[in-house]
Amino acid sequence: MVRIILRLLLLIIMSSGVAHAGISDGLVEWMAQDATFTGVRQVEFHPVVNHTGKDFDFDAAAVATQSLRELLTQAGMVLIIPGGAEPQRVVIKSSVEYYKPGTVGERWVGFGGGAAVCILRTQLFDGHSDRLLADFVGAYQVQAGGLFSIGADKMVPTAAAELLADRILKLVGLERADSGFEDEDNETD
Amino acid sequence: MKPTSRLRILFLLGLLLLPAAAHAASKNIQVHPVIISDVPKPSWTEIQWQYIDHDFFTKAIVDTLDHSGLFSTVGISGPADYRLSAEVVGQKMVGSMSNIMLLLVRYQLVDTPSGNMLWSENLLTFHHLSASDVFMGGTRAAQVVETAIRKNLQQLVARLDEYTSGEQKVLSDEPKRLNYQTQPKIIDKKPEDDVGYPHKLTGDEIKEHYQRNNNFIFDRVPRSDFTLKILSFNNIERDCDMCNVYTGSGVMNIKESQNQVCFDWDDVSYPSSTCFDVIQIEDNRYQLIDPTDGETYGYKVLQ
Predict the structure, then answer these.
(1) Does A125 touch chain B (CB under 8 A)?
(2) I need a surface site. Which of A78, B39, B181, B188 has the fewest CB within 10 A?
(3) B102: which chain A residues are within 8 Å (Cβ-Cβ)?
(4) Rg of chain A over CA atoms, in angstroms?
(5) Which residues of A touch B96 (CB under 8 A)?
(6) pTM
(7) Whether B151 contacts B125, CB under 8 Å
(8) Where are the alpha helices (DSSP H) in chain B?
(9) How far is CA A9 from the centre of its chain?
């Protein structure tokens, strides 16, 4: 009996390790040489749009929109709805470029087959001239883990949004609210 | 390890899948050596590391454009009508088994004689190996890189095809590039003597104004001038040198009863998609004013 329990524990530990090892992410970016974002706290924020050309049962764009919105506002940014009276200095537009929910069965096999993947792109424009200032592309995938990866298809848009939100916040000199650091500007609020 | 010969063979085979240009080539292009500004370091889990080097990517662009038939000649030196620059600003292999490639390339097309920037854009492509491809062994890294490159060059050809086709079409009508130093020819009529400036145009006057003229230059923000052209069926097009999206399209609608003109743009946010009052302030000087927020664009009529 003890031997069976030990084997089960070992299996759980090994499976957890595999699940963690099956998570990967990456970010590529471009910024205009003369672009400066210091002190930017208020931006025009557009909801994430679906550029995949496909419809999914799960609305990855809406989830990514919600995640980006929460992370940016919690860090101290003010997001203005598009179409406001005053053009904002910076406009943020994002899109789901690729989304694949994958399958649990194939993620049990591993090697990248059946991976749950989300690739998000966020572009920052000059609100007055429409000029592109920065271009960030973040990919997040869960490629292994078997049963431990159930729900990965719902999680990858959020995780990809976190990648991009962290990059945007770093750009404007803020930290994510749950990082334990507070922006100096917010301390006076 | 730099791109292998296997990668080159795969890529050249992929060239056969590129669509040929639909229109005749009449101009030549020079491709500048590609700049690689992002050379990633391999992670310990990548089984066969691949990255794009400048020699390989420059040759890939030249071969692709040569095969596309968009230009009469394609080279890396000598005089040319166009000059194309490419910078690989991002290349990233994602996944412990190298199953996703992200590729971000910034392209710039310059009209060589004038030195004007004609087009610049970041083209993003990626490739995700399918479940059946993940057991390809060592070739998987080459496969994923090669496919991302091929998709990127397909986008490049499509953009250049679109641009060069559009330019030929526009050139048949009038120059696409306007010389801002040249005094625009005044072709709008003066208002009646008893109408002073500023004069808010009525619905009928707005309709007549836009029926009589179809080409305008706007100057709302310094260095962000744009031209607006009325095409058939109230379709409109704006060209903006300094904007990320050079050409934007939309529709124009004149609301005669409300004495306003409304613009609805498809892909651009500058100028705004909204309704404006039209105010004439000089012989050939007008303003579009959004009555809800005072947003104002000044413009002149061009021939």
Answers:
(1) yes
(2) B181
(3) 26, 28, 119, 137, 139
(4) 19
(5) 21-22, 24, 143
(6) 0.64
(7) yes
(8) 5-15, 54-68, 139-173, 203-212
(9) 33
